[in-house]
Amino acid sequence: MLYDPTERRIRSFVTRAGRLSNAQAKALETLGPAYCLPYAKAETDFAQAFGRVAPQVLEIGFGMGDTTAHIAAAMPGKDFIGVEVHTPGVGSLLKLIGERGLTNLRIIQHDAVEVVTHMIRPQSLAGVHVFFPDPWHKARHNKRRLIQPPFVELLASRIAPGGYLHCATDWQDYAEQMLQVLSDSAVLENTAAGYASRPEYRPVTKFENRGLRLGHGVWDLVFRKKG
């Protein structure tokens, strides 16, 4: 049996049983079958899932999906694969897909590490977005943070040469860790001298706006796959 890096690991999330709104439940029932892809322990032909060949961007942990829907609507020439474990977030994004008529979005409700490990082909992604992952701000919980060297190397192996990895956080010590981990990768290069300016495609969220008004910082990191 081959060694599976997803087995017996510390997870970067805690599954919460959040309450579904009626609209989210209806979206799950009516749109879920068309836009949600089942997790499979095998490489997935996403071109077949989307019905076309186009650059593919993976977003990990899309929350309630507002940013994901905004970016997908603004970039109709790209296909977006959103991964999220929490059912209300999946229902919320499905609702936005229906409201905005988005055809370039698919959702996988599963652990992102397992999705990347088993479903994403090597060197197939044009980009990866990891926006505001759980900071696990207590020092004893830092080991649960998603952006760690093994996962970054796994992500990098799935990104095509010239593709990018874009992370964002509003926790300074996590930003510093991200910068160190990404800079240490032998196959990624920073597109900026340190932290990047927020790319235009990433909208400012309501939560982020509130933090900025209170003087909280936000750090974006955009690294490119060498090659």
TrEMBL record:
GO terms for molecular function: tRNA (guanine(46)-N7)-methyltransferase activity. Residues 140-145 are annotated as: Interaction with RNA. PROSITE patterns: SAM_MT_TRMB. Its EC number is 2.1.1.33. The keyword Transmembrane helix does not apply. Pathway: tRNA modification; N(7)-methylguanine-tRNA biosynthesis. Belongs to the class I-like SAM-binding methyltransferase superfamily. TrmB family. Catalyzes the formation of N(7)-methylguanine at position 46 (m7G46) in tRNA. This is tRNA (guanine-N(7)-)-methyltransferase. It comes from Noviherbaspirillum galbum.
